[in-house]
Amino acid sequence: MAPPVRPRSGTARKEAAEAELVLCGRAWVAGRLQPLEVGIDGEGTIRAIGRNVRGARRHDVGERVLLPAATDVHVHLRDPGPEAEVETIASGTVGAALGGVGLVGEMPNTEPAVTSVERLEEKEARVRGRAATDVLLYAAALEPRALAALARRAGGFKLYLAPTTGIDPAPEAGQLDALLAELAHHDLPLAVHAEDPGRFRTGLAAVDPVSWDERRPVDAEESAVRRLLAASAWLRLHVAHATAAPIVALARARGVSCEVTAQHLLLSNASGRDGRFKVNPPLRSELARAALWREFAEGRVPILASDHAPHAALAKALPFDVAPSGVPGVQTTVPLMLAKVGEGKLALDVLLRAACDRPARLLGQPMGRIAPGHRANLLVVEFRSRRPIRGAQLRSPCGWSPFEGFPAVFPVEHWHDGERVVDGGEYVGRPCGRVVRPEYAPGAAARLPPPERA
Ligand code: DOR
Ligand code: ZN
After folding, report:
1. Given pLDDT bands bounded at 50, 70 and 90, which one contains residue 439?
2. Distance CA 219, CA 246 (A)
3. Does any ligand 1 atom lie closer than 6 A to the CB of residue 158?
4. According to the model, what pLDDT value does residue 448 have?
5. Nearest ligand 1 atom to alpha carbon 160
6. Which domains does the chain show, CATH number per domain?
């Protein structure tokens, strides 16, 4: 295996050696779009950036822009699982590539769940030869004694504080302390589904997204996040799917990473009444949604993720109380936000930090910026090429989207390690995705700097 490449500082470095491939265009480098040439070596690593880079092959993207590919730290590819017609590692990662994502963090609540080294190895074997993007595999943090062996192999841990699809029950208070104490020994990202089931109003009927929101209120998220903040500062903590501005503020105040999803940014509990709008944690009120959008648009949310959780359309059409929770999104999250950039409602800088740079840093990967030493995982984007999302046309076999009709800007091209995997908006790649694990720089702090300083 090639040694890990550490990102180097500086951007306009000239290299004597000729690049294998040079991509030319308006590239997002050092926080702005600049007419530049990006030299890529035979290993798919960016080696030179400048006004005039020599190379064997050149590809000029014209007026289109060159952006870093995104990292989605939170997806559920359902593989292994009984529902291959809903999603698989193959289909989900092709969807990711079409949506501008070059690396996904795959959650462990598959069937069976990833709770042992054996299951982790089985999942690794499924990724190899099938995945279109790189995949980081999370293991479930359920049993303290299993963690040390899992930590030697996993890309991260996922801790569910509330029961959810495929993982039940949540740890008791005493068990949680033991889990967190053990996890602090392992330098891996710890993504947490932070809802405190003690705060759920289970007596309330769940008939629509408004009553689902009342039943699993924001208080339950706040209680769970406070519980986590009391844990060791050595943990590389990441709060998954924060749904409200106060939750983001709480995490940020302590330097803890958190993510928001497109569904909590763009949909509210008034967007629809049926099971397609059932998700955990729930969609909130329009007022709360608007406040979360402000946090995000003003650059105060570290990470954007999809929580891609496809379920069959038939299952989502069941009565609300029995419909499964979760919505698909790996192919649409970045395109929805690129459309917001095109509309002037979101700064490109804010989006790229949240979708590319910070998630790659959380997962310890040399990507997410166009910089020497970073992998040549790049997108070619044309902001004028907006089109409405049609669930039936997305790559996921689940065949629906909660964002039906929303405008989106899908990347025209996607380059993975210097190889074109999407061309003209179509997938043209091969299953070249690898299983990756974090490579943190020695001494790198476990807690992210607050977004303002990141
Ligand atoms: O809505 C959700 N769906 N929330 C989760 O925590 C799990 C996910 C799923 O796997 O379906
Ligand atoms: Zn999830």
Report:
1. very high
2. 10
3. no
4. 59
5. 6
6. 21-67+371-427 (2.30.40.10), 69-365 (3.20.20.140)
